[in-house]
Amino acid sequence: MTCFSPCFDVEIGLYHRPMHGSEYSARCELGYSRGNVVENLIRCQSIISRSAKAGAKMIFLPEASDFIAPASQSPSLAQSLKDSQFVKAIQSSAQENNCWVSVGVHEKSAEDAKRCHNTSLIISSEGIVQQAYRKLHLFDIDLGNSTSANESKYIIPGDKIEKPLPTPIGHVGQLICYDLRFPEVALIHRRRGANILIYPSAFTVRTGGAHWETLLRARAIETQCYVIAAAQVGTHIDKPLRQSWGHAMIVDPWGTVLAQVPDVLPSSPPPSAEEDPEWSTSFALADVDLKSLELLRKSMPLLDQRRNDIYPRLD
Question: Ranges for the CN hydrolase domain (predicted)?
Fold first, then answer.
């Protein structure tokens, strides 16, 4: 499969923060689009435009929004951030629509021709890349029953935890997909000031069905952060079969799922993005109140109650 072959369906997460005096709240909007480079870009741009018109201040796109291709092709398809036409177009969309955007891409390596980086970007409303985070934990598993992966064969692991980034909706700590299974990094983000954690993802159907919601809720509860998880959904590759679980959602610090995209896959064959840029989109809304978050943290001060005299403090 080339980069222009269909990689069906991407769930898109959006975040909207209207101002109500001293109140800080947000609305989460989640939807579907297709996955190949050119068509997915068109659909991502459509989502950005429509969401901005609805009042969105920050938009979250999933892991690998540029493409999902067979592992052997990913390094050759990846581009550097400064040369990526996909990234440049998303930057332009952010600027044109006066909104912030989080997007997952494949980033070309300058040192390793056989592997690339799995990178999440946060782009400001001025169209400037404010932060690039490279996925730390790589998906190397073998669960049998045709559920196996060797992400480290074509992805270079990151070597840095980026600081929570100030954005219009709060301080955002970036993580990606399989990072969700490692609570240490989420707790470090909380210690460093995050009130929102993001997990752009492409969970498999088997692991997603078993663990996706449980892990997202656990990270929200233990860090007392809002958790936003945009997600890929549907079939990307036929041989070998590659499907994503979907169920993009937002979870509050109490562990309540505030919004989740309905598990409805669009029919095929799909129209081209030029024919219907809104094809396969779906939306879910939620309010997020950072003042309520602070009240919860004061009433249940988990950070202050940690026994760092007994076990190491995570910084």
Answer: 19-290
Residue 63 is a catalytic residue: yes
Asked if residue 25 lies in contact with residue 56, where contact means CB atoms within 8 angstroms, the answer is no
CA-CA distances (angstroms) from residue 278 to 46, 213, 234, 283, 292? 7, 27, 17, 12, 34
Cβ contact 90:122 at 8 Å: no
Q: Annotated catalytic residue: which of 28, 99, 116, 177?
A: 177
> What residues does each domain of the chain span?
10-264+277-305
Question: Tokens at residue 188, please?
Answer: 């470090």
Concatenated DSSP letters for 176-205? -GGGGG-HHHHHHHHHTT-SEEE--B--BH
205-260 pLDDT, tens per residue? 999 999 999 999 999 999 999 999 998 888 777 667 788 898 999 999 999 999 88
The model carries a pTM of 0.90
Both structure tokens of 80: 């550097």
Q: Looking at 99, 108, 135, 225, which residue is catalytic?
A: 135
Residue 260 contacts residue 284 (beta carbons within 8 Å): yes
φ, ψ of residue 220 to 5 degrees: the values are -65, -45
Q: How many CB atoms lie within 10 A of CB 126?
A: 11
Omega within 30 of 0 (cis) for the link into 269: yes
- Fold topology of 10-264+277-305: Nitrilase/N-carbamoyl-D-aminoacid amidohydrolase (3.60.110)
Residue of 63, 107, 151, 162 marked catalytic: 63
Please tell me the number of Cα atoms within 13 Å of 311 on its side-chain side: 5
Would residue 135 show up in a list of annotated catalytic residues for this protein? yes
Are the CB atoms for 44 and 33 separated by under 8 Å? Answer: yes
